[in-house]
Amino acid sequence: MDSEKRQRGATLIASRVRSLGRYFAGNSARQWHSVALLGALCVCAAALRILLGPLFKSLTLYGFHDWDSHSAYNYITTVALKRYHELPFWNPWMCGGFPAWAYVEGTTNLVSPYLPLYLLLPIQVAERFEILGSTITALLLTYLLAGRFSKSTALRTFVAVAYALNGRWALQTATGHMWHMQYAWLPLSLLLFDISLEPGRRRWAIYSGIVLALIVYMGGIYPLPHTALLLVFYGCVIAAARRTIRPLVSLAIVSVCGICFAAPKLLPMIDLMMRYPRKVASTEAIDLSQLTVMLTEPNQSYDWAPIAVPQWGWHEYGIYVGYWVVVSMIVGFVAARGSKALALKASGLLFLLLGFGAFHPRAPWTLLHALPVFNSQHVPTRFLFPAILLLTATFASFAGRIIDDMLVRRPWLDVLLLVPVYLIAIDIAAVGRKTMEHAFYLTAPEILPRPTFHHQDATPYLYAPGEWSGATLLAMYANVGVVGCYGVPDTLVRGAISDKSPGYRGEAYVVSGSPGKGGATVTHWTPNTATVQYSDAPPQSLVVYNMNFDPSWTANGTPAVDYQAEVAFPVPPGSGVVHFRYYPRTFNWGLLLFGLAAGVTFVVPAIRHWTRRRAANRIVPQG
Questions:
Q1: How far are the Cα atoms of 168, 172, 176, 240, 540 from residue 379, in angstroms, in the given order?
Q2: Do the Cβ atoms of 561 and 569 come closer than 8 Å?
Q3: 3 state SS of 372
Q4: What is the pLDDT of residues 582-608, one digit of tens each?
Q5: Strand 529-537 relative to strand 519-526: parallel, antiparallel, unpaired?
Q6: Torsion angle, CA of 185/190/192/196, rounded to 10 degrees?
Q7: Using one digit for the tens of pLDDT, what is the confidence trace for 37-76?
Q8: Residue 550: pLDDT above 80?
Q9: What are the percentages of helix, strand and coil residues in the chain, rounded to 5?
Q10: What is the signed CA dihedral for 497, 501, 507, 509, rounded to 10 degrees?
């Protein structure tokens, strides 16, 4: 009986195998492509589980290094929307008060696909899911971009894995550089721009500009200028190679749309940056031997640098991809042909040279650093991250010409090629996991929020074990403003004083020529507003709100005045009420530009299309 069962089982298995063979023989190309797609998903899922798995072991832990300040930038969005039902324009808890919306890294979760997560989940949990979502986004968009250069699923997955999972992604993410995650959108902007170069598809340049605007909203302080530089250089190379101005026209469309659609945040950002200009020196440089170690040494993590680096920590240098990826980039650079391949390899070479830093007085980074925007940046090794994308895409352009032809006759080859891609992905993810293991390890004490807001010199709460870059987020939980916080421009003049300072007279007070006369009390408070009731004010008095001054503050509908870097307003003698309000003074102009751009690019064409359809469907009476 047992032998009969075994025989029937063997017969059933053989039958299934023959059916599967007939299935693939019938329409082999489509079926093998489906299998390859499934295999690519499995490769990415396995690598993601290895790389990001440590983040989800305990959801109550907080991140170290810069995670606190970046969490504070985003937590104001949740508090303002849910508790006070207003937009997160001002962060009163941070350093005596500082613009939230107008700051380049502030409120980056407001115009973001991840906003619902921040509204529904604790912030440290929402951050983990944003990391996961950003990594998946980078993989998917890079895969789509690589499809411009090869039809091979394996090659496209190879490019996606090398870009989205390399060691720099893990190092930057673990240290709380949330802006780095906006590199996930760079492949999409380049993809849409590349499509716009085709005849009759110029409109796609609009969508590329919208992606740039999204990077602005989501705080891509480095990804934004890097993406813009890439589009300009890539477009110029294509224009020169094909002797056409089409790429230049697309660049103009991308620029105008990017500026206009980002204007509600971009204009307040420019206004703030003009008052607090950031110009930093950047003399960092690496050599070829250091770059080789950065790319190929598997024994590296945030806590372990295999070589000495000139400045900053290893998280600004490590970018592990392994020897096979390095070899493929070299092969692609040497062997790739065609105008697109030329644009890719030229752009990749430019970003690679920029990544070497200030190795010579005439080095590319030394010259670029003298220009506006780039003179506010440092750590040129950050250019290496997009360089990986460009150079692996160059390899896909070269190898695709060979493999794509082979796949027509042997579609099963794409599945076979996923095996080495899987090994490369697992290797890269395993190195990144060493850093991710210690990304979130801090615990927060139990915090009871205080009923009324006030300033203190330092945060009353600390993470355990130890403190890293202050604990502004924990102070926000407690409804305490921290004057001596971290995460704003060094040149910020802090007028607000703490409740322990000798000159402290409350969160609102009266200043006059008669010391000791007049009193003021905050009767209603939100992050963007303060209603102050004053009494017994002598002539020529000022009502002062204990908050850092900013030109966008108004009082009773008119501009507030600066009193020792605090917000103030001259009041008539006696008693009265002053309504202080912060509203970015260039925000409405940004909304106007946004509305005009949306109208010209979407509303007007829609109306025109609707009118044409109506005219075409109209029945013309016959006489």
A1: 13, 12, 16, 31, 51
A2: yes
A3: coil
A4: 999 999 999 999 999 999 998 878 787
A5: antiparallel
A6: 160
A7: 999 999 999 999 999 999 999 999 999 889 999 999 999 9
A8: yes
A9: 55, 10, 35
A10: -110
The pairing of strands 574-582 and 553-555 is antiparallel
Rg of the chain (C-alpha set): 29
Per the listing, tokens 């970015």 go with 584
Q: Are 474 and 443 in contact (CB under 8 A)?
A: no
Beta-bridge partners for 442? 62
CA distance 58 to 310: 35
- Following CA atoms 153, 154, 155, 157 in sequence, which dihedral angle do they give, to the nearest 10 degrees? 80
CA dist 425 and 322 (Å) reads: 10
The 3-state DSSP class for residue 540 equals: coil
From the CB of residue 188, how many other CB atoms can be counted at a distance below 10 Å?
23
Task: Output the CA–CA distances (angstroms, integers) from residue 563 to 21, 96, 570, in the order listed.
Answer: 82, 14, 10
- Rounded Cα distance between 520 and 508, Å, is 6
- The SS3 of residue 531 is strand
3-class DSSP state for residue 288? helix
Count Cβ atoms within 10 A of the Cβ of residue 620 and give its class: 0-12 exposed, 13-18 middle, 19 or more buried: exposed
Token output for 589: 């102009």
Q: Are residues 56 and 127 in contact, defined by beta-carbon separation less than 8 angstroms?
A: no
In the numeric block, the tokens 């075994």 are attached to 6
Residues, the chain: 623
Per-residue pLDDT, averaged over 339-351, amounts to: 96
pTM to 2 decimals?
0.92
Contact (CB, 8 A) for 589 and 258: no
Token code pair at residue 585? 């003074």
Distance of alpha carbon 327 from alpha carbon 392, whole angstroms: 10
Nearest Cα to Cα of residue 498 among 485, 488, 487, 486: 485
Q: 544 forms bridges with which residues in the sheet? A: 509, 568
Tokens 């970003």 correspond to: 351
Look up residue 278 and give its two tokens: 């950031």
What angle is formed at CA 381 by the lines to CA 380 and CA 385, rounded to 5 degrees? 120
Pair 22, 406: CB distance under 8 Å: no
Cα–Cα distance measured from residue 132 to residue 256, given in angstroms and rounded to the nearest whole number: 32
Measured distance CA(232)–CA(255) in Å, rounded: 10
Per-residue DSSP letter, 301 = B
Residue 222's closest CA among 354, 392, 361? 354
Phi/psi at 480 (5° precision): -120, 125
- Give the domain ranges of the chain: 50-441, 508-582
Evaluate whether 387 touches 320 at the Cβ level (below 8 Å).
no
Tokens of 448: 């009871």
pLDDT at 623: 46
Q: Name the 3-class secondary structure at 455.
A: strand
Q: How far is residue 521's CA from residue 539's CA, in Å, rounded to a whole number?
A: 19
Residues 6 or more apart whose CB falls under 8 angstroms from that of 110 comprise: 77, 87, 88, 101, 217
Element (H, E) at 554: strand 553-555
Query: Using CA of residue 459, residue 460, residue 463, residue 465, what is the dihedral sign?
Result: positive
